[in-house]
Amino acid sequence: MEALLHNQALHGNSPILVVCYTNHALDQFLEGIYTFLDTGIVRVGGRSNSEILKQFTLRELRNKGDTRRQLPGHLRQAYANVSGEMREAQLHLEDAGAQLECSLRGVLHERHLRGYMADQHWESLVHGYPEEWMNPKGSLVLEWLGLGASSFSQSAPDRNGAQPAGTPEEEEEEEEEEDGAEASLLKVAGEAELIEEERLLDQDEDGRAQLQKRRRQRWQRVTLEDHLLAMTLEEEKEEKKEEEGGPKEPHWEFQRHQKKAMKQRMKAELRKRHGMTTAEADLVEDVWLLELGSRWQLYRHWVQKYQAEIRRRVLQYEEIYQREAERLAELRLQEDLLILRQARVVGMTTTGAARYRQVLQEVAPRVVVVEEAAEVLEAHTVTTLSGACQHLILIGDHQQLRPSANVYDLARNFNLEVSLFERLVKVGLPFVRLNFQHRMRPEIARLLTPHIYQDLENHPSVLQYENIKGVSSNLFFVEHSCLEQEIQEGRSHQNLHEAQFLVELCRYLLCQGYRPSQITILTTYTGQLYCLRKLLPAQTFQGVKVHVVDKYQGEENDIVLLSLVRSNMEERVGFLQIPNRVCVALSRARKGLYAIGNLAMLSKVPLWSKVLHTLRERGQVGRALRLSCQNHPETQTEVAQPQDFQKVPEGGCSRPCEARLGCGHVCPRACHPYDPAHKEIQCLKPCQKVLCPEGHRCPRSCYKPCGDCQVKVPRTLPRCGHQQEVPCSVPVEDFCCLEPCMKVLLCGHICSQTCGQECTRRCQETVQAALPCGHLQEVPCCTATDIQDGRPVPCKTKCPSVLECGHQCPGQCHACFGGRFHQPCRRPCQRLLICSHKCQQPCTSDCPPCQRPCQNRCIHSHCLKTCGEPCAPCMEPCEWRCQHYQCSRLCSEACDRPRCDVPCPERLSCGHPCAGMCGEPCPQKCLVCHREELTQIFFGFEDEPGARFVQLEDCGHIFEAQGLDCYMDDQGEEEEDRTAIKLKVCPRCQTPIRRNLRYGTLVKRSLSEVEAVKEKIRGQPAEIAAQAQRLRAELKGKVTLRARQPERYQQLLERLGEPSLSVQFLEHLAGFYGWLAKLEEGLQRVAPAERPGARLRLAEVAGWLERPHSSFTRQELSDLQSELQRLAYLVDLLARAQAAGGSPDASVAELLGTARQLLEGGGRFTPEDERLVKAKMEALKAALPASGLGLSEEERKQILGSFRENTRGHWFKCPNGHIYVIGGCGGAMQRSRCPDCQETIGGENHALEPSNQLAPEMDGATHPAWSDAANDRLLAAQLQELL
């Protein structure tokens, strides 16, 4: 190269192109050039490990040079635009990828799933759980999925945290242990990884940028997890957050075993992929009614929609990134072209030459040098050439490994494994061979000469190598006869004996003081490579290289341990007989080579026979390897088996070390050549140092720091006077007393803390407290105090009510509002639907349409709708035909041909005649081969001569044709059976018969009846539209609802336009809302002090109505009607009491109290309660008339009779309803003050005070005595008298 560069003027200004097969070889080549050329080198590709060549990489030259400034202006602008677009797209991709990864690492918070949840799911989730039981994250999803405070407070394990044997937790621990053991093994690169590492190009991203990118991604992931996840799988992050300082809000805390159980449950569920279908999810109204397994399925349905949206964005930005990357590649090629044209030497791998082929054609190098040319495919070599090439130099060794082709047949049949180098040598083209080797010591080189190379001389540098420490010979082959094992279905082999022996030898050499990087373990088979990997823990062997021979060409190391693997009874040596591979295997070591194999078998190969002869001449082969102790050279140990290395446990010999350590103790180890100064030896004997004036000695091991004295001594604490066992080094003033605190709290209980701790503020002693609902419940003492202060506490008492369906109510007292609104029944319905499926909904009186996939199908197609939707009839021609009959109708119509009873002429695969009927699918059973099975009596005709059989397509059962014909034609004896609409079922397994050619007419008739019922259930579109129009008109007439509850009124109108409209449900909902609006209007007649309580009960009903519903069950309708009736009586009662005014007498007060107790109490408002309330109301009507005067009718008449004026219209009331009278003409002539409330009454100039009004309840007047209406009536009466 130096000569070529000195004569570069002869071949123009074009650079010299250097091409190598691997990155390692390219680095070595260019480093050699750098010794005499320190400028003008360009190294293409970023996978260089050389610090010297870092400045010459194409990436560095792009960054520090002014090449980009030399580009045309439009290209520089395009470069900036493309880079910006790529960075933006990359950020979006990274964000989306982090979000996608987050969804797999924990449970997403519900606020991020809101857009992917149906409205009814969100509403029921939000309103279905009390806030006071919330977990620290404030996540309803955690509570809903059974990962919150309530779930684990109710189902905590015992105090010892014991778990049953064989639980998922233990299995998870075992998996983690296995993962940890796998991670602790030495990483061994496979063939594919090695090829990628050596040949693929880097994506021009330097280490600093990668580090910054990884840090940003890690920070982004942590930030996203805090933002997105309600619970994460990583415990370390949470524990770290808990350890951080700062005030903590009070919340539920979990014990360690509870956290572990939650993590493991969540991990198991997140691994699953099965979620609800959209149809199944749409059927769910209240998510809290689902069982735990179904909740996780619904959660996965939401997450799948969330992930699908992210993937859609990823694809969008990926297209943008790919498009801009292609544009950037084109711009970089132009930039690289400028750099390469200015260089003197350009180095790249064959992969880089293929990638930069277009640029190389532009650069047009006239001189091309190819290193490792004998290992490069001819096509790859040709790729490096351009039309301007004048001088091609190939460097290589065709006696070592050939190129490897991916397709073996092409390599063998078309000589693809022959390189251009080898082909030119073999055709007689002149070549030059180098005779000096600079790698191997002479003993190792002697194995190759003259067996492989005829003339090979040693360079003086290889004569100066030192001997291998701890071994009596620098070169040795160990013989054995242990057999190999076949793996990977015979495609590879392993030899456990050889692997164990070399691992122990490697450990021994490491003990001699050799660095792991100085040792390489080579093997001839991939199977042995992975066998070695399992025996090499990374803690001990980190840095030791382990490779197969084929992937180590061009490499070398000080010490090579070689496993030959092959040892079998058939004496098959495989590719160990190929001279190229043998050459590579024996020529990789510089100072020491140790091999192990079945040499007796290998000696049958001529080449190996010669090698072994050379070894035996110098005593370098045998059954055992002789080790030599460095500290005691006279002691030698022979090792033939892996267990023999136990004789030299520390790499020396079996004698004790006996060296005195710095601490004064004797070294406890056996003889060891490493660490002769004993600086790294840790003394494990007990430390004898005195730590304190008391004379206590250190209890730790000698090598550990002593620290403060921790021996416990009895001390009396000055603050409390208790005597405690205190560590010797801890001052008594700083010690926290561990005696139980005996102070009595304000509630009367003893403090649960220790004496040295601050007393408990919220007592956790369990007490029995009476809840507002009347139930007794065990709660913490502090919670009982909260109950007395009016704080709501959910009652967990099981609801004792029996629902109208006959089942026990599944709710608790607080969930059922004290028995007023019961939870829906959760028992599965299991009634048989018209489609023959069982209803999967909870117990209901009216089953909704079936949501399973429709199973109706014919020979042409199958229905894609749900089972409850009407199927579109098949319009293809009927396929039921044989040589005797043929149906002429459509597939969905009843057939117009009879059944054919002629035996089927076909033959089965077994060669016997078919047992079926002509023109029908042949039964899968043969009457000869399966005679005993077919002739088993069911209908009674099976064993008769000439019996024929029919196989049902839906279930596969086979029946005798005559008996099955009778069964299918039978309509039943009972009237109910003859008129029932249902599908015929298989006589054996009860599977509905939906398709069968022989009984097609019967099946199609039944299916058409079922379809008619489906349409009846769903309703005709015109009928539904008419009902919706009628309901819309009714809504417009509900003036009170529109005025009092405009939002709910608008919601009802909007729901009338929904496609899945249930008019009956909306009618009920409109009726209930209208009732609530009237009651709310009636509250205006109630005393202001009574309104908040009444409004609260109205709000409870409104909140219950706002829960997601698609229909009302009978139980729900009954509960609502009874509760609204109760509220109507209550509002009427409160209004009557307000109208009466004043203080009622004792009897009236007793009636009011009794009625209010019935109306404001808990529990259901029963018919008996209603009867009692009606009786009390009738009694109150007599005592408190509707006039609201607080007088009886007799008293009112007496008052009216005491005044002289007999005309009406003289009685008025102040703004607060107090009655007064105006005498004379009835017109107000002066103002005064009401004696009861001091409001202004009366008026001036016959004009009444605007805030006052007529009191018609006193005398039945319709207008004041002095008014325009009164004058008009008086004038009319006078005219009548004149006439």
From TrEMBL:
Pfam (any one): AAA_11
PROSITE patterns named in the record: ZF_RZ
Gene3D superfamilies: P-loop containing nucleotide triphosphate hydrolases
Keyword terms: Cytoplasm, Immunity, Metal-binding, Zinc, Zinc-finger
Any Gene Ontology biological process: regulatory ncRNA-mediated heterochromatin formation
InterPro entries from the UniProt entry: DNA2/NAM7-like, DNA2/NAM7-like_C, DNA2/NAM7_AAA_11, P-loop_NTPase, SF1_C_Upf1, ZF_RZ_dom
Localization per Swiss-Prot or TrEMBL: Cytoplasm
Domain RZ-type: 1191-1264
Biased composition, class Basic and acidic residues, residue ranges: 238-256
Ranges of biased composition (kind: Acidic residues): 168-181
Keyword ATP-binding attached: no
Keyword Phosphoprotein included in the entry's annotation: no
GO MF, one example: zinc ion binding
A GO term from the CC aspect: nuclear RNA-directed RNA polymerase complex
Residue ranges, annotated region (Disordered): 152-182, 232-258, 1246-1265
Annotated PANTHER family: DNA2/NAM7 HELICASE FAMILY (PTHR10887), NFX1-TYPE ZINC FINGER-CONTAINING PROTEIN 1 (PTHR10887:SF341)
Listed name of the protein: RZ-type domain-containing protein
